[in-house]
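Q: Could you predict the 3D structure of tRNA-specific 2-thiouridylase MnmA?
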Amino acid sequence: MSLRILAAMSGGVDSAVAAARAAEAGHDVTGVHLALSSNPQSFRTGARGCCTLEDSRDARRAADVIGIPFYVWDLADRFREDVIDDFVAEYAAGRTPNPCLRCNEKIKFAALLDKAIALGFDAVCTGHYARIIDGELHRAVDPAKDQSYVLGVLDAEQLAHSYFPLGDTTKDGIRAEAERRGLAVARKPDSHDICFIADGDTQGFLERRLGKTPGEIVDVDGTVLGEHTGAYGFTIGQRKGLRIGRPAPDGKPRYVLDISPVNNTVTVGPVEALDVTGLTGINSRWCGGTPPIGTARYTAQLRAHGEDVPVTAEITADGGLSVRFDEPQRGIAPGQAVVLYDGTRVVGSATIATTERASVGV
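A: Sure. Here are the predicted structure tokens for tRNA-specific 2-thiouridylase MnmA:
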């Protein structure tokens, strides 16, 4: 069945090949580039970002080669409100957000999809590495490129209008295919890190928006070890850049254990104090309808390129989520996302609200 498909084209190789595959499959495809920056740079900085004028032009050239109509849609205001402002607010509250999840939830599969449906399109096509099988979201076949984690915020209705043509292919295969199709972006570097922080300096970005807010860096017993210029400049599990003048008594490195926006304090301690045995989640979003209420076994992914770890999860009738790990995990911070899997199938995701530490008193 031929569909009317809106292909989101970032200017990279993945979205270009996805659009080409959709068109080759006989669908009526229109390409669209999302202008997400109010003041886009002319050129990328290395491999960072995906919102420059250069990217827009690359997307247009790819659409011309494919032979599909192409438009640029300005979603800069929506992106600023739903992604950038949320990112800053989360850091100010002592949490560690994932802006890619928020962008997928609020921009690509809310603002864009809603507009596409209103205009009569059947689905939105993207270059994400994931698969939809019988209406359910699954991991891509290439574990190194699987992006199902950042799509775990999609609900069943959104999945019904989503099209991911790349989930059965490796990245090397996609680049080779782009060359065969004559797409100039075949060897273009992937974008990475945070697209709206082109220089990669997250702390500098936050400082410009939140200002300097000096506070103390303390040990687990409350001993003051140093000072900082903003608690938002730290993440749980961080080791480098702590600027602590006094070494630990055992000579071992210290890690960020806690960030308190209430008293503007950063707590540091030994690496074993990072061990987390469980967590609670809020704002749950289920990919195929609400899973069975109660306790069940799943695997969980805690970061975009993290490992799949076995867990026992309890889902409550009000959408609450509690997760217990078979083995303690490290570097887990409130504000991040936990995504549950049943085999390769994505069950859903939640925002981490609290964590339970193995070490008492941390």
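Q: Anything worth pointing out?
A: The chain has seven helices and 17 strands.
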